[in-house]
Amino acid sequence: MRFNNFLLRFLLPVPIMMSLFLGITACGSGAAPAKINNTPLTVLSITGGNVSIQKSGSGNWVSATEGLTLTKGDKIKTDANGKAVITFFDGSIIELNGGTEISMDELIAKSASSPKTIKIGQKIGETTSTIVKLVDPASKYEIDTQSGVAAVRGSKMFVNVASDNTTSVYNLEGSISFTAQGKEVLIPVGSGSSAKPGEVPSAPQPGLPSGIDASGITSGLISVSSLTGWQQTNLQLNAGDKFYVEYRGGSWSVNIHGYPYVGPLGLPTDIDNKVDNGSKITVSVPYGYLIGKVGSGNVINIGNMGGPFTADASGFLSLRMNDGDKTLGDNDGAITVAVRATVYSALHDFSTTNGNPNGSWSYGSMPTDFSKFNVYNANSTFMWYGNIGSDLTPYIWINTGDLTNGVPPGLTNTNGVASGVPTGWLSLHPGPNSEPSVLRWTAPVDGDVHVTGQFLAGDRGIMTVAVRHNIQEMWKASNSGSFDVNIKVARGDTIDFVVYGGYGYGNTPVSATISYNN
Fold first, then answer.
1. Among residues 194, 193, 262, 195, which one has the least CA distance to residue 226?
2. Which of 71, 165, 177, 86 is nearest to 127 (CA)?
3. CATH number of 158's domain
4. Residues 509 and 485 occupy one common structural domain
5. Which stretches of 196-258 are assigned E, i.e. beta strand?
6. Structural domain of residue 431, as residue ranges?
7. For position 350, which CATH number holds?
8. Which residues contact residue 481 at a Cβ distance below 8 angstroms, ignoring those fewer than 6 apart?
9. 406 Ramachandran zone, left/alpha/beta (phi>0; psi -120 to 50)
10. Does 82 lie in the same domain as 162?
11. What is the pLDDT of residues 6-45, one digit of tens each?
12. What are the backbone dihedrals phi and psi of residue 10, each rounded to the nearest 5 degrees, phi first?
């Protein structure tokens, strides 16, 4: 940041600055207020079931609460149905699945005298970590188990500790190592290594556990770095759409050489007023304030207000710290937010270039007993597919209107309609053994939602069509029909739009809209 040297030296001596603090409220359902000061925060979010905590120095487990600040020595565990997300002071994230217990063994923020260090003890269960890039070679992010140490440098990894203490480490992205009994193994992306207590790690083997894909974190949280300019999220909006940006944790500093770590409201006014405004993106809010824009629209002051905000243009939502591109080099830290629209349209939001999952939407298939969801990993310009059958089925595709190369293999074009799929519609096709093809929406936050849409008859085959909430069927019909359902969802709940029960000539158009009743 560009500072006025005279003011920096005489008006803001370091001891005074480091004694200042800013109160921030974590905006999410049931979120507790968290004070942000010169010590960056590590914050707990509960995404499902029951989560317990044993505070450092205590021998008692108690129910954890949303927005709780964590410190060195704290222990966290989830019950069989529990899920939690911990946002570290630098914006890194660790997600705990059910039946998991971890401890905060070391939490050290970067300073002039020490590198950034995060050490987690994992006793049992499953964790997925998404780690902010470690620029300083001395910085560490490690998970210690009874069998070995998994280390990350700006990557994503999945760690499983079984009941016999066997540890399995998988590389979802970036650089991952696993060390046990003095031997270090580097794990390639998409592969894993395991070790029992007292043994060296196995040679890396390709493949990821069932239900785990390279997208890693499923909580819907987004880390916004202080070291990067505009960062595009996966929330796509039309002009006039309402949306929310809800603070979950983390903190950042606009200058680690003497300015405090703060939350999304940025520097306290009494400090900000004494700093040159020349490097701000917008002068209407302090340095360090969370700001956003949609597409090529105007800057929107986000802060920790939550929303709703209104998109003044069409495009993807981007977020950043209020600090100019040329002055980001002395910044540190990141904050984590949940972003959501008030209305989600399966047709409008569909994309083959924005990844899978695509925001709150994901595309995949399930076995006929609906026991697990398998994300489609292959795509073309207009479809995602599983390629179980020789014709790429099961799959989901969109009829763009360009039918020259814009339909799956073997489909026909009759009077501008591809096998009963109108232009602009999505179509689901089951797999060769009647595997359900699934359009899935994952709830980013708790709330009451209104689910509307319809299935069309489509091609000549007679399929079963359904809408499912988690493992429960909400609505079902033969081949076609309209649905209109109100339901309460918790963050992480899924709503699936499904086509199954057949195969031949199974293209079935679908339209679905989900609206939060705010």
1. 262
2. 86
3. 2.60.120.1440
4. yes
5. 205-206, 221-225, 231-237, 242-253
6. 345-516
7. 2.60.120
8. 454, 455, 465, 475
9. alpha
10. yes
11. 233 223 433 333 333 333 333 333 333 333 344 457 888 8
12. -105, -25
